[in-house]
Amino acid sequence: MAPKKAKNPVRSIERATEILELLKELDGARLVDLEGYVDLSKGTIHSYLATLEQCGLVSKDGSTYNIGLSSLTLGGYARDRQPLYVLGREGADELAEQTGELVALMTEWNGRSTYLYQRAGERAMAMDSHLGVQLPIHCTASGKAILSELPEERVHEIIDERGLPVWTDNTITDRAALFEELETIRERGVSFDDEERIDGLRGIGVPITRDDDLLGAIALAGPVNRLEGDRYWEELPDQLTKIRRMIDVKAKYPQS
Fold it and tell me: What percent of the chain has pLDDT over 70?
């Protein structure tokens, strides 16, 4: 899903959003730090920060500004309205318990694979992932599962905008090769990330749809030494497929 372009964008809102994104990327920043990133005067940046702080979108600790808790309220509300989260959370929990690995519900937003929910099994790798984190869509199991269900035109749009950047030696960087793999995913219903984003990390994903509408994907990730052989190529894909069927039933029969 790509955000619609406003006919008459409000510049002040764009600048406020830019400052919020910078605070996230910098993991907090002082006013003097932001001067180097934003083409605004010190006084204007301070006015934006003070207003955002008043709204609860920014908090201040000493001289350092961070994202405020009002953002958590908005993000949680947005997530709770996503059908994939409502329908898939129970299945994600079950799969994480069964496998011991990290399981996530992901959706496409602005050409990236975006976290809606994750559950860590008892052996799950620690990863820098949480609600709203966005991953490249062309080299992750969740992303390729999502791409396999998108219209071809939309896939081309995403590639044109985001490109196919290299993350590891296994990353697919050729458009034709990616489309060939997406066809394989459609045939089997399962996608694989074979160390394509992070060396030593593998992933498996399946797309989730409801009434032919794409909701996103459920994916599992773990280290190569545990995701190997039949477990990686057959057993875990079968478990993911079973969870997808469970989600399908919940979507068709909400009270079941």
Answer: 96
Task: Give one DSSP letter per residue of 92-161, joined into a string.
Answer: HHHHHHHH-SEEEEEEEETTEEEEEEEEE-TTPPP-S--TT-EEESSSSHHHHHHHTTS-HHHHHHHHHH
Q: How far is CA 108 from the centre of its chain?
A: 7
CA angle 16, 109, 126 (to 5 degrees): 95
Radius of gyration, alpha carbons of the chain: 20
| Token pair in block for residue 37 | 């990133």
The DSSP bridge pattern shows strands 102-109 and 112-120 to be antiparallel
Q: Which of 107, 157, 173 is nearest to 135 (CA)?
A: 107
State the virtual CA torsion across 117, 121, 125, 128 in degrees, nearest 10.
Answer: 20
Question: Does pLDDT of 87 surpass 60?
Answer: yes
* C-alpha 189, offset from chain centre: 20
